[in-house]
Amino acid sequence: MDDRLITIAIHTYERALELKSLLESEGIEAVLQNVNLSSPIIASGVRVRIKEHDLPAALRIIENREIFMGSPVTSSDSPLSRRILVPVDFSPMSIKACKAAFRIAHSLQSEIVLLNAFVDPALTASIQLSDTLDFDVAGAQMRQSIAKSAENSMISLCDELKRLIKEGEIPPVKFTREITEGVPEDAINSWSKKHQPMLIVMATRGADKKERELVGSVTAEVLDTSRTPIFTIPESASVDTINRMRHIVFFCTLAQEDMLGLDALSRLFDSSLLHVSLLHVRSRKDEGRDLSGAEEALLRYCRENYPRCTFEMISVASDKSAERLDSIEHSSKIDMLAVLNKKKNVFARLFNPGMAHRLLFRADIPMIVIPV
């Protein structure tokens, strides 16, 4: 029964041939019927037929033809374009970041840009030279080889994403790809400044592995320097969480920035049915001060402006924040952390890292970092 042929579309000969080629390029066998063999160019009413068991995948391909027929292009700089940037290094974590990004992009009706950066070998390694090969030639050859390898890996990643779309594992979202030369964190920040994406999505390792890469983490460096909201998803987190986020812990400061952060959060994630725990981490200078009035004012503001959400206020001393976060997680599963991130100079980041940086290396919970 599954092998019987069914008609999926009726087109002119040229359109039918185009559709047949598209389906076959994605591994779905297709045949044309009712073709006038004596004059195929002017044939009309040509049926494109496939096996019945291929119907779900074929429909996803046809409904999202611009994805499956896409080619590498540079994203438009139009301010109306809604883009999510996904830096990739072709590791398994890249697939994880892409899966999360596709779910977010689908809910926001936005597009995705995959970005890979490779480093010029002349900047990172010494090259063993023979008597007949000077440094410039060797460096140029190695750079060309690295660029070609990156392009092949990017094509393979795009093919894998198309397969996941075709099989219904991730939602259909239009995406493009770019490869650039440079240090990854610099390339990501440079692209963001030029194109201003609405969000950057990056996957991170588990907390036990993060401890071994405290220095040199691309995600941490981008998080500390980017002025674009960043969504991080740990390797232990399920990407299915993106579609059913219900409990968010929002680290508040009782300042004007809280309102900016809440507004950004409401635009990036569906605020319906959300329960938001406003976590106020008191600094040492706040010890002994009565901040209950400011906490109540923020709580009242949230309830008045985001009536579809429920809010609670939790106040905790700075040296107890980790323990309090653990207790919240045990009592009620946390789906995401939301952290405001103020811009700091390099010395401040080095000797006094922000809350977002510290949480990145301690928590195995998806996190949205909002620059203010």
What does this structure look like?
This protein is an alpha/beta fold. It has 3 domains: 5-63, Alpha-Beta Plaits; 83-234, HUPs (Rossmann fold), CATH 3.40.50; 246-334, Rossmann fold. 41% of the residues lie in helices and 22% in strands. It has 14 helices and 13 strands. The chain has helices at residues 13-25, 55-63, 65-68, 92-108, 121-124, 135-166, 184-195, 207-210, 218-225, 256-268, 292-305, 321-331, 346-351, 355-360; strands at 5-11, 30-33, 46-51, 83-87, 111-118, 175-181, 199-204, 230-234, 247-252, 275-282, 310-317, 336-341, 367-371. The strands form 2 sheets. The chain has a 10-stranded mixed beta sheet, with helices on both faces. Strands 1-3-2 form a 3-stranded antiparallel beta sheet, with helices on one face. Strand 10 (275-282), helix 11 (292-305) and strand 11 (310-317) form a beta-alpha-beta unit. Helix 7 packs parallel to helix 9. The longest helix has 32 residues, at 135-166. The radius of gyration is 25 Å and the shape is globular. 29% of the residues are buried. The model is unreliable at 73-80 and 210-216 (pLDDT under 50).
Bulk shape: globular
Helix count? 14
- Biggest sheet record: 10 strands, mixed
Strand line-up in the sheet with most strands: 6-5-4-7-8-13-12-9-10-11
- Poorly predicted ranges (pLDDT <50, ≥5 residues)? 73-80, 210-216
Rounded to an integer in angstroms, the radius of gyration calculated over CA atoms is: 25 Å
Name of the CATH superfamily of the largest domain: HUPs
Q: Under the CATH scheme, which architecture of the largest domain would be assigned? A: 3-Layer(aba) Sandwich
CATH class descriptor name of the largest domain: Alpha Beta
Order of helices and strands: EHEEHHEHEHHEHEHHEEHEHEHEHHE
Q: Span from first to last CA? A: 59 Å
Helix content: 40-55%
Q: What is the CATH topology assignment of the largest domain? A: Rossmann fold
Q: What structural class should be given to the helix and strand makeup?
A: alpha/beta
Give the tally of structural domains. Answer: 3
Summed over residues and divided by their number, the pLDDT gives a mean of 81
Number of strands: 13
| Percent of residues in β-strands | 15-25%
